[in-house]
Amino acid sequence: MIELTKGQELLLATDDGRPRTRLQLGLGWDKHYTAGAMGTGAPDIDLDATAVQFAGEQLFDLAFYNNLQTRDGSVVHLGDNLTGKGDGDDEVLTVDLGRVHGPVDTIVFLVSSYHGHSLEWIDRAYVRLLDEEQVEFARFRITAGVPETGLVMAKLVRDGEQWRLRAIGEGIAVTVPTESVDKLRPFL
Predict the structure, then answer these.
(1) What's the Cα-to-Cα distance from 156 to each of 18, 67, 87, 100, 187, rounded to whole Å?
(2) Whole-number Å distance between alpha carbons of 45 and 37
């Protein structure tokens, strides 16, 4: 497993050079102990994982809690976790790179706080990538508090017949994924 750092790139291929085509992106978090109804009285931390597909700079589609699958069927959101409670991944996106519509060249992964908490209110947050055998091969941790309500975690970029993952880790002001498109364009 590779612990990714901001700006790092990773070719999505197996050790023997075969392209990885089916991925699972898991988002996990715990709320900071002072957040939520038992702490400050604010709503629980509700983070949302989103995948936004672009063809050039043009939006193609997105998968998130209110649109669980892209129209090409390549990205599927497996359900919304409203609190981050429990062990393991709190929200999961599956990606089948072999099904991505031809003109789509970039898929951006976004984490946003539905209730508008800055990401300083979360603890032990991460995004991890697993292959089709459920083996984790990369992880990106949110280690420093992010003062914004959203975080552009990473992007997948088409590289010929293969794909590359680039860790981004930049905060943006967004709470609802559908409002993020213009704010994501600088990261393309």
Answers:
(1) 17, 20, 27, 11, 11
(2) 10
Instruction: Determine the Cα–Cα distance for residues 147 and 104; give it in Å rounded to an integer.
Output: 31
* pTM, rounded to two decimals: 0.88
Among candidate residues 144, 135, 143, 140, the one with its CA nearest the CA of residue 3: 140
* Residues paired with 175 in a beta bridge: none
Tokens 């990606």 found at = 95
State how far the Cα of 136 lies from the Cα of 1, in Å rounded to an integer.
6
3-class DSSP state of 170: strand
User: pLDDT tens for residues 66-122?
Assistant: 999 999 999 999 866 545 455 667 789 999 999 999 999 999 999 888 878 777 766
Q: Are 143 and 183 in contact (CB under 8 A)?
A: no
Give the per-residue SS3 of 24-80: EEEEEEEECCCCCCCCCCCCCCCEEEEEEEEECCEEEEEEECCECECCCCCEEECCC
Strand partners, 66: none
DSSP 83-121: S--SSS-SEEEEEEGGGS-TT--EEEEEEEETT---GGG
